Amino acid sequence: MGSPSKDLMEYLKRAGVDAKLHEFEEHATTVDDAIKLLGVRREIIIKSILFIDDNGSPVLSIVTGDKRVSEKKLAAACGSKKVRKANPHEVKEFTGYDVGGVPPVGHRRSIRIIIDEKVMRLGC
Q1: Which of 31, 36, 75, 111 could form a disulfide with 65 if both were Cys (CB 3.0 to 4.6 A apart)?
Q2: Is 102 exposed, middle or buried (CB count within 10 Å of its CB: 0-12, 13-18, 19+)?
């Protein structure tokens, strides 16, 4: 893989998505960092959080910045008994990106994605 931003743009281009990537001098690894950097409301921020199910498979949860992921509900949604938050090494291994910089698409490996309804209603 090349640089994360280049890999993401190549993925989007292959998918036929006309997108522009905005890069910043500062790195936002938390919702609070992103709010300060972008000057937007918490509920507009989108978080991509990687979990590992009880079979060792990755599950990416996409939620707004004002929400917390219920591991119990996420496990039920993906048909597992339980899930746990992935550690930084697993995040890099499965997605190709570092914690705090995981996009919702364009990962190193195929990952099941669960998107919260509130994200879908944003209309971005």
Answers
A1: 31
A2: buried
Measured distance CA(27)–CA(5) in Å, rounded = 13
100: Cβ–Cβ under 8 A, 6 or more apart, which residues? 27, 28, 29, 30, 33
Q: Rounded to an integer, what distance in angstroms lies between the CA atom of residue 22 and that of residue 5?
A: 10
Question: What is the Cα–Cα distance from 38 to 20, expressed in whole angstroms?
Answer: 16
pLDDT in tens, 32-90: 988 998 899 999 999 999 999 999 999 999 999 999 999 999 999 999 999 999 999 99
- On the question of pLDDT at 124 being above 80, the answer is no
CB 52 within 8 A of CB 109: no
DSSP letters spanning 83-124: EEEPPHHHHHHHHSS-TT---SS--SS--EEEE-HHHHTT--
pTM (2 d.p.): 0.85
Structural domains in the chain, CATH included, are 4-120 (3.90.960.10)
